[in-house]
Amino acid sequence: MAKTAQLEVKDQDLLKTLRELFKSVLAQDDISAILVPWRLPMKNMVMPTLITDAERLDGADPLSPAFPMNGAKVVSRLTRKASGSKVAVVIRPCEIRAFVELVKLKQGHTEDLVIIGVDCLGAYRNTDYFGWVGEDIDASTKAFYTRVLSGKGASGDGIDWAPSCQACEFPVAGGADISVGLFGMDTDSRILVQAWTPAGEGLFLKMQFSETDEPPGRKKAVDALIAERIAFRDSMFTETRAATDSLEKLTAYLANCVNCYNCRVACPVCYCRECVFVTDVFDHEPSQYLRWATKKGAIKMPTDTVFYHITRLAHMSLACIGCGQCSNACPNEIPVMELFRSIAHRTQKGFDYEAGRSLEEKPPLSEFREDEFEEVVGIN
Amino acid sequence: MSDFEPTIVAFFCNWCTYTAADLAGTSRLSYPPNIRIIRMMCSGMVDPKYVIKALLEGADGVLVSGCNPGDCHYINGNYKARRRIKLLKEILPQFGFEPERLRLTWIAASDGVLLAEAIRDLTEQIKALGPSDAKMKMVI
Fold first, then answer.
1. Does residue B35 sit at the A interface (CB-CB below 8 Å)?
2. What ipTM did this prediction achieve?
């Protein structure tokens, strides 16, 4: 059972309250640094930033709709080997779930790490965010979180959440050591702090929160939000499947792809140091292209576009957590998140697996049982 | 459609199914010539991308065959192959590939007769399905 406390919001300033919370985490003896979404001083962009100087936390902005990258990748960099000291990280729920997958793939460690997950208010597409944020980032973030928390959605300025966020059924930080709850709270006066793991409880006790109960409206608000997201997600699946249910349609869906592989670079769970598609396996001989062209009459260059995407699905769909960074990274606006999530939903179901759910469940292709999947064997 | 001759790419493990194919040959058993056998050291070595590439290049079917469960020369390669085929069977049908175009079987070294039968059955099934889309349409 989680340890729960309610934190007073001073001066109705939610952002300030969160910053104070992060400062008190950083002030703990055993925490040497904290990674937070942080406003860059030279531009109105919010980037994951590793902070040791408490004053700098006045620039922390975990409520901004900026989501330039999936932070699991940077947390993996921080934890792939022991650093000798403990770090706290403030990341979104999808970043936590991606990190869970990376830990299982031996790309990061949870020792010496405290994960703090704030209820996720969603994000804009990168390109939408740049145009929206304007000069006054304080006012922008405040307008955004006020609107989202009052249940009015994100589309006040004619910009909506990224589709991945609209389809996200995990707005609450499931795998965090400490979670901060906003949904279903009167965020002008109180927010929720909950510790879910021994590491989280240790910090919770040191920070001397007084334990209370979760307010009754909280669960209802979260459940309603999740139901809305699942409805969006399911209609997204239906539309995407209808648009890709034959090889011809899939080829049309991917026709704008220029093989830049940005979707793979941005993907937090595509962790190979060197992707096979950039090795000399795909550095075909010039004469090979001519043979293909001769055989078929025409080959599109660069080749292997559909091959790349289906192979990527075989590699990452079991670990896909649906963060949508692939779509963010696509230069030609192919709705790749919709495609990858639709396929991933079915492959994960096929193995009774859910990416990011638990550190205990092994990735499906890393284990086997003697007695399983008999239905895929045989001719008749 | 009656004169359609499918191309079936077959990945056979060296120790069981490939040996069964040798046995079928030395026993003078006949089976349809539609099959193109690629000898692998183990069914567990069949990377999903080999299967995807074959199907996208216009193979009408892909057959992966290895040792019976418990008999793998490398102890458990065939169990790993089964999970990979399961994964491909979740992905490929979503893009319109009929599930029958991808098959996994276990055929032991002594089962030359079974091998010839399996190839006959599979060839018939794929003939009935007709040529694959990848053969008929441009794939980028």
1. no
2. 0.96
